[in-house]
Amino acid sequence: MTKPDEHVDVLIIGAGLSGVGAAYHLQAAFPERTYTILEARDTIGGTWDLFRYPGVRSDSDMNTLGYRFRPWTQAKAIADGASILRYIRDTATEAGIDRHIRFGHRVVRAEWSSADARWTVEAVHDGETVRLSARFLYACSGYYRYEAGHTPHFPGVERFRGTVVHPQHWPDDLDHTGKDVVVIGSGATAVTLVPAMAERAARVTMLQRSPTYIIALPSEDAIAGALRRLLGDRRAYPITRWKNVVVSTLFYRLSRRRPRVVRSIIRRATARLLPPGYDVDTHFKPRYQPWDQRLCVAPDGDLFAAIRDGRASVVTDRIEEFTETGLRLASGTELAADIVVTATGLRLQALGGVRLTVDGRDVALPETMAYKGMMLSGVPNLAFTIGYTNASWTLKADLVSEYVVRLLRHMDAHGYDRCVPANDDPTVAERPLLDFQAGYVLRAIDEFPKAGSRPPWQLGMSYAHDLLKLRHGRVDDGTLRFSSRSAARETVPMTDTNTDGTTP
């Protein structure tokens, strides 16, 4: 392989929410070390820049989706996409992280050499191959495939005279004012789109095959606002953050242990928000249990308000075919449409599609096992971030970054330049990495690394447990194997300075 153009201590893939957070933790802990972020797109923000459909927002509260080290100070806890994007970019700018990002660099291959104890990474930039080497590789590219979302084949779609659009590729010039809109889907994207488009459309119909759990939550956290006024932003933030972690964790555990109770609670709350006599069980009674899939959030009950006002409706049926003017359903009903939005899901991609090689051998991701949900068996000096499916992504991303800092400090303190998880216990059985029944997960889970039947080969879904394990647990736990080359180290020792460490 051609000699790399540049060497850095840590190479981060992705300049989205996770990548910016990872860079902050690294440079705060190791100000003398070098790092670079390679970002395939031309701007900071990742998913929050990619999705630009009407009403795009988070379905997690920003007191937990925000970074541990940077308080969220706006009134709205369930924030719009533009505000979240600005928060990420402001974080990068204020910390000087933006100066370490190389935009338009799509990483396609990474090759580990044990002889050199380093990764050589290939990225494509303006059609040319760029090579960098790094001591440690940190993949923060999430797991969405940015090139295309999931759109099933619909019979007759080619004869439809209107506009068909997937939310992942929303046209800047699409005007839905006064139009009849059909949104196919019932997940978080559809639940966001319907009330947002109903503000200007003539009529919006959410067409679903089966219902989803939808809960109404206030867009503003009254307790958080009171605490900010009383204590100030920085002191109020950790209290609000922990309050929301505890509440969401208790609700999740109740959902798993007493699903009938939670189903009943959600149904009663939904019925109160809908018009009298509304057929709740047809349109808002899912077949599955709460948290088999992620719950959708309607901030301030906006979806239900649009239904009450007659600006939106829900139809539960199957599509027979597209017609020239809309859709014909299995029941024989025809829905007129000028615009059809296929909010039919996302496609997943492990490690951003990067091809890994270790000492000349290609790594087949499904044949690896994920150590603590963040490293790969048999793959040295690599970490990746996958957030929670039952809580805010950043809660986990922050903990993974803290663990990477601890790992690098441990290696430096003992003169190691190589660490690799080793699964040599034949009694550990394979499990899917994500134990989650959402369609977008099930369609791609076989392409991902495996989890194991017991720790440390599991992707934790409890913030409290992960906090103890990742922030305070032993680094040298017998599963991670450390080694060093006999040759002298080529880089200076890491400076062991503290991060600000102010909030949980």
Topology:
Blueprint: E1 6-13, H1 17-29, E2 35-39, H2 47-50, H3 62-65, H4 81-94, E3 101-103, E4 106-113, E5 118-125, E6 128-139, E7 163-165, E8 180-184, H5 188-198, E9 203-208, E10 214-217, H6 222-231, H7 233-257, H8 259-273, H9 280-283, E11 296-299, H10 302-308, E12 312-316, E13 319-322, E14 326-329, E15 334-336, E16 339-342, E17 355-358, E18 361-362, E19 370-371, E20 375-376, E21 382-384, H11 393-414, E22 418-421, E23 430-432, H12 439-442, E24 450-452, H13 463-472, E25 480-483
Parallel strand pairs: 1-2, 1-6, 2-3, 4-17, 6-21, 7-16, 8-9, 8-16, 9-12, 10-11
Antiparallel strand pairs: 4-5, 5-6, 13-14, 14-15, 17-18, 19-20, 22-25, 23-24
Helix pairs in contact: 1-11, 5-10, 6-7, 7-8, 11-13
Description:
The chain is α/β, with parallel strands linked by helices and 504 residues long. The chain is globular. α1 (17-29) runs parallel beside α11 (393-414). β19 and β20 (375-376) form a beta hairpin. The protein contains 13 helices and 25 strands.
Supply the key terms:
alpha/beta, 13 helices, FAD/NAD(P)-binding domain, 9-stranded mixed beta sheet, 504 residues, disordered C terminus, 2 domains, globular
Global structural class: alpha/beta
Cα Rg = 24 Å
Contiguous helical run count: 13
Q: What is the level 1 CATH name of the largest domain?
A: Alpha Beta
Amino- and carboxy-terminal Cα gap:
44 Å
- Largest sheet entry: 9 strands, mixed
